[in-house]
């Protein structure tokens, strides 16, 4: 973790479940890591890092195994946007990597993820600017 006031990097405790291609954000002074790819494939697990204790703990699982989602914190909520999941196609039940075009919100009072938007256009991205959630929508060529 980088400390910009001290201009130095600090090693963190390792995740309980090693992964790549995950969503990550800081929310309420903790680091959240959502979904990703493990040695076994896609995962729905979520871990939260407590900066004060240098420890990771398990968190409410995401509703679907995914990779490459965007994760942002805004207005007391976590938002998970897009990513990739293994889904059957119209012509086959064999799952293939599929770009997801939805948005989920984590509500701490209910301790659950809720789908809030089923479909964004294509090729999602997310950022927070002046307390407004912006999603980039591109049309397929």
How would you describe this structure to a colleague?
By secondary structure, the chain is mostly beta strands. It has a single domain (12-123), classed as Neuraminidase (6 Propeller), CATH 2.120.10.80. The chain is 0% helix and 50% strand. The protein contains no helices and 14 strands. The chain has a 4-stranded antiparallel β-sheet with strand order 3-4-5-6, with no helix packed on it. It has a 4-stranded antiparallel β-sheet with strand order 7-8-11-12, with no helix packed on it. Strand 7 (70-74) and strand 8 form a beta hairpin. The model has no long low-confidence stretch (mean pLDDT 88).
Please outline the helices and strands.
Elements: E1 2-3, E2 8-9, E3 23-27, E4 30-38, E5 41-50, E6 55-59, E7 70-74, E8 77-81, E9 84-87, E10 96-99, E11 103-107, E12 112-117, E13 126-129, E14 132-135
Poorly predicted ranges: none
By DSSP, the count of extended strands is 14
Broad CATH class: Mainly Beta
CATH superfamily: Kelch-type beta propeller
- Determine the N-to-C terminus distance: 39 Å
Report the total helices. Answer: 0
- Class derived from helix and strand content: mainly beta
Q: Tell me the CATH architecture.
A: 6 Propeller
**Helix share, percent:** under 10%
Strand content: over 45%
Number of domains: 1
Name the shape in a single word.
globular
Sheet of most strands: 4 strands, antiparallel
> Radius of gyration from the CA trace?
16 Å
Order of helices and strands: EEEEEEEEEEEEEE
- Order the strands across the largest sheet as they lie in space: 3-4-5-6
């Amino acid at each position: 973790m980088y400390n910009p006031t001290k201009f130095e990097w600090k090693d963190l405790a390792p995740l309980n479940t090693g992964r790549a291609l995950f969503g990550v954000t800081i929310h309420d002074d903790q680091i959240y890591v959502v979904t990703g790819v493990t040695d076994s494939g896609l995962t729905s697990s979520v871990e939260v890092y407590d900066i004060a204790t240098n420890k990771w703990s398990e968190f409410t699982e995401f509703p679907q195994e995914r990779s490459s989602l965007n994760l942002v914190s805004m207005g007391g909520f976590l938002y998970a946007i897009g990513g990739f999941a293994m889904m059957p196609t119209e012509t086959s039940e064999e799952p293939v990597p599929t770009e997801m075009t939805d948005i989920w919100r984590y509500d701490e009072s209910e301790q659950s993820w809720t789908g809030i938007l089923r479909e964004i256009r294509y090729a999602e991205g997310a950022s927070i600017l002046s307390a407004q959630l912006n999603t980039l929508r591109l049309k397929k060529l």
